[in-house]
Automatic annotation (TrEMBL):
Domain YetF-like N-terminal transmembrane: 9-83
Record-given protein name: Membrane protein
UniProt domain YetF C-terminal: residue ranges: 86-202
Transmembrane segments: 7-26, 63-83
PANTHER family: UPF0702 TRANSMEMBRANE PROTEIN YCAP
Record's bilayer topology term: Multi-pass membrane protein
Species of provenance: Lacticaseibacillus brantae DSM 23927
Amino acid sequence: MALIQDAYFITAIKLIMGFLAMIIQIKLSGKSNLAPSTIVDQLQNYVLGGIIGGVIYNMDIGVLQFMNVLLIWTLIVFITKYLTNHNRLVKRFIDGTPVNIIERGQIQVDNATQAGMSASDLAFKLRTAGIVDIRQVRRAILEQNGQLTIVEVGERNLSFPLIVDGQVDEQALDAIDQTPEWLDAELAAQGYTVANVYMANYLGGQIVIAPYPQIDGPH
């Protein structure tokens, strides 16, 4: 009877630890839930669920070992997130990059097939977006999460994120027919560099900048 009680007690402790680990990972990632938005988020959920589900009823793995595994996985997740947000090569390797599927009414077949998008998938996404004539599509970009962002011919008040997390979005620059040199000059005119910028959007022919907190303003 004592052994059964001990087993239930250890299981309860592991369950509580797993629950707390999930809350800590959610809070530290700045999110309000575990809904995945990137590959890292999906891996985080899968592995964390596997750790908790696979270990919680295994009496051969003690509470201390379980805690160590949770700590190691949490550390791996946040190191990966940090590198993804601050290193372009790591971000490109893990999250991938947006793929230009349609350019000025022409389907970029090579890009579509390399991205694993079939013609039927593309047709479905265009229909759901209300696109009847593909020639009216100036640009369609397949995002990392599988969504298709469509810019129609003649569409105004467009917003393009030129800089995200201190990194230049070269496809967004190409969408407005500009170069990195032009962007550097525009930022310099406002007293910023790319590394100083948290986000910069191209709105109505102007660049709207949101700098990192340590940058008080143009200088």
